[in-house]
Amino acid sequence: APSDTNKRRVTILGSTGSIGTNTLDVIQQLGGQDTFDVVAVTGNANVALLAEQAKAAGASLAVTADERRYDDLKQALAGSGIAAAAGRAALLEAAAMPSDWVMAAIVGTAGLAPTLAAARRGADIALANKECLVSAGSLFVEAVAAGGGRLIPVDSEHSAIFQALEDDQRHAVERIVLTASGGPFRTWTREQMAGVTAAIARAHPNWSMGLKISIGSASMFNKALEMIEAKHLFDVRPDQIEVVVHPQSVIHSMVGYTDGSVLAQLGCPDMRTAIGYALTYPARPRLNVDRLDFAKLARLDFEAPDEERFPALRLARTALERGGAQGAIMNAAEETAFNAFVDGRIGFLNMADIAELVMDAMAGWPAATTMEDVFATDAEARRQAGEVIAKMEMAA
Ligand code: NAD
Ligand code: MG
């Protein structure tokens, strides 16, 4: 058996979520504790699952972001020898513990500080938490580079592009084409969408995912975030980023080259493929996931995205063209509006209205030059979004 020092040390931020549980499944498929040393796992509300995961993976530390759940976590881990901790500072400590690879799978801007802590110490960052890239942009990319680790996308679209991008052919890239499923409301009118609840909006046709990204797929705000994510990951101009609706979610995205060639990555909609690629890159793992059956598939459909019904795409375009702090502002306003929608305080279509109002109001906001600027921009956009939401509630 290989000695402990030969094992890849991994950290999973957001282990209890959809990406986190899939990551642990991939680790298990690739040999579990014989191959990997799981240093730390982190979660939030579900400490029972977190403790169970920590034990199954043989983790050294389990952290819940929620301080009120410390006692529950400690109790659930009693006698296991696994350390328990809680709160934001503990989350940063988990991220800072030495490891080779970190899955960044916390949802939302809450993931930015811990992911940065991991990046700064030089770990390879497998990035699912797209919000931290949308919010901090090139500063985040620079932080990873300065730490000396690699930034490997986990988002299925960006993993596809990463796989279709040849390093020595970057100069010949003409465009990248992000595919979008169109979500559950792909064929709906705005009138139909106006009255939907979070329970309806979260039902995705192809992928099983966390709440925020499921709602983001329905509003296409997820694709809006992904357009900005792509700009920073692949260093392309806004006019080189295309979106095409592809309801089957089989083509995960494509790269178009100057000779007219288009390279695509295909697969069944299963995040474990992208997670496995990020874990073993540049090698490919052997994974127990469904294989595509082309005869059964029979056809692949495409349609142009509709920016009238899905204004999030137009807002992403605006954010890309304006540059500066607009990505961080769009992200913060959208996350605030998403929380209000889930709480039943605003309607589905209001999410884009709020993001647009705050983006316009903060159009002159200076670009961040430090991470402190990013956090300040985020806080101001949340404050302004909160004001808009309060006004909407008063008017309703
Ligand atoms: P999820 O809601 O299922 O899981 C989120 C994780 O973050 C959980 O472990 C939760 O405990 C933790 N968390 C929540 N709030 C927190 C807080 N305030 N502080 C610390 N931790 C907190 O989400 P998910 O679907 O797994 O998505 C995670 C990230 O991956 C998101 O950024 C999402 O956009 C991205 N992503 C997800 C998928 C997918 O298929 N689920 C695909 C592509 C990208
Ligand atoms: Mg995606």
Provide an overview of this structure:
It contains 17 helices and eleven strands. The protein has 396 residues and is α/β, with parallel strands linked by helices. It has three domains: 150 residues, NAD(P)-binding Rossmann-like Domain (Rossmann fold), CATH 3.40.50; 134 residues, no CATH class; 74 residues, Rna Polymerase Sigma Factor, Chain: A, CATH 1.10.1740.10. The strands form two sheets. The chain has a seven-stranded parallel β-sheet with strand order 4-3-2-1-5-6-7, sandwiched between helices. It has a four-stranded mixed β-sheet with strand order 9-8-10-11, covered by helices on one side. Helix 4 runs parallel beside helix 5, helix 6 packs across helix 15 and helix 11 packs parallel to helix 14. Magnesium ion binds next to helix 7.
Descriptors:
396 residues, alpha/beta, Rossmann fold, Rna Polymerase Sigma Factor, Chain: A, 4-stranded mixed beta sheet, 17 helices, binds nicotinamide-adenine-dinucleotide, binds magnesium ion
Tell me briefly what this model is.
With 396 residues, this protein is an alpha/beta fold.
Provide the domain count.
Answer: 3
Gyration radius, rounded: 21 Å
Oligomer: single chain
Instruction: Record the strand order, biggest sheet.
Output: 4-3-2-1-5-6-7
Which fold name is given in CATH as the topology of the largest domain? Rossmann fold
Question: What are the low-pLDDT stretches, counting only 5+ consecutive residues below 50?
Answer: none
> What name goes with the CATH superfamily of the largest domain?
NAD(P)-binding Rossmann-like Domain
- Main sheet overview: 7 strands, parallel
Mean pLDDT: 97
